[in-house]
Amino acid sequence: MNKFKKRLGLATATALLALGSAAHAATDTFDGNMFSVDYGVSVTGPTSGFFSLSHADATGSASEVEIPNLSGWKIDTMGNTLSLTWNKADEFMNSGSPAFVGLKISDTGGHLADILGASITNTTYMPSTYGNLVEGLTPGQITFDADNLYINLNTAMWHAAPMASMGDPFRDQINLSVNFQSAAPIPEPETYAMLLAGLGLMGGIVRRRQGKRGK
């Protein structure tokens, strides 16, 4: 009986080890994954009553590739980062109404892992350099759920020339780092073959033992 248990345990361990040894990396990046971007408004907030004014579908890239302009915004992805840049063709100034006016990045096709958070990365001001955080945007205006990232621009602004106490042409960008949940490992085809071989060994041991009992 002890010999049987040892063989069964060895076969099981071999199968489980094979299952976990060759797995894909977690999907914690935009690279190669499809997602959608909407620019829209809501009078109650981003998660209810959202009305899209413009829409774009995109696929993330390992190198920074521009997604077509969306209501005046260029959107680039690289790894788990998003870079949104105002195209500076027009001025804008939002007054805090409606409750939400801005961008919604969505995992509409289930290609991305769950979103756990997002943080602004260009908080340090660089004088006379484009790429500074858009004026009027605060970290609290970046919200999320598992499948959506909301960027509320209802108090943001951009001006080609500085205004009294507000307006800065160099504040034209929003850079975000997105935290994705690590996806469950997906076994390689070779791993399934090793698992089946281990299970077959277990079945063979059981059959041999049953055959001996029947004699």
- Estimated radius of gyration: 26 Å
Q: For the record, give the distance between the C-alpha atoms at the N and C termini, rounded to a whole number.
A: 17 Å
Strand order in the sheet with the most strands: 2-1-7-10-9
The number of domains = 2
Binned, the helix content reads 10-25%
Give the number of DSSP strands.
Answer: 12
**How many H/I helices?**
2
Class derived from helix and strand content = alpha+beta
**Strand/helix succession:** HEEEEEEEEEEEEH
Detail the poorly predicted runs.
15-26
Shape: elongated
Q: Characterize the biggest β-sheet.
A: 5 strands, antiparallel
Average predicted local confidence, pLDDT? 82
Report on this structure:
This protein is an alpha+beta fold and 215 residues long. The protein is 21% helix and 32% strand. The chain has two domains: 2-24 and 186-214; 34-180, no CATH class. The strands form three sheets. It has a five-stranded antiparallel sheet, with no helix packed on it. β3 and β4 (73-78) form a beta hairpin. 21% of the residues are buried.
Record the SSE blueprint:
Blueprint: H1 2-21, E1 34-42, E2 51-59, E3 65-70, E4 73-78, E5 81-86, E6 92-93, E7 100-106, E8 115-120, E9 142-144, E10 148-152, E11 157-158, E12 173-180, H2 189-214
Antiparallel strand pairs: 1-2, 1-7, 3-4, 4-5, 5-12, 6-11, 7-10, 8-12, 9-10
Helix pairs in contact: 1-2
